[in-house]
Amino acid sequence: MNIAKIMIPKISTAYLLENNTVRQGLEKFNRYGYTAVPVLDENGIYAGTVTEGDFLRHIMEIKSVEMKDHESYLIKDIIRKDFCPSLLIAAEQEDVIVAVSNQNFVPIVDGRGVFCGIITRKGVIESLANELEK
Fold first, then answer.
1. Rounded to an integer, what distance in angstroms lies between the CA atom of residue 43 and that of residue 116?
2. In CATH, what is the architecture of 3-133?
């Protein structure tokens, strides 16, 4: 499977930086309506994925829904680094299938761990269907 062919590139993907504030993250989630977004470090290395649940746990922990109260907290403090593991751009088809069976999207990284983009479950299914038609 050619991951680069079905990948949504970084430039077309919503993501957060781990040093963004929780407020900035909440605003991005509100703007795009996503339930999960990749998080990168300052060098573009994939650091994890932040979810609506991560934000909800944070809001419950600090007991405030006021946006200004979330300006002093960083995304890196609320993400679960073991959630939504990435795949290498050269991953085998079997690994891709296993990953998308567990996640709606899979972050794709290069050999240095730099975030390249995402593949979606829908994109993988469409690619496999196209291969079957041939």
1. 12
2. Roll (3.10)
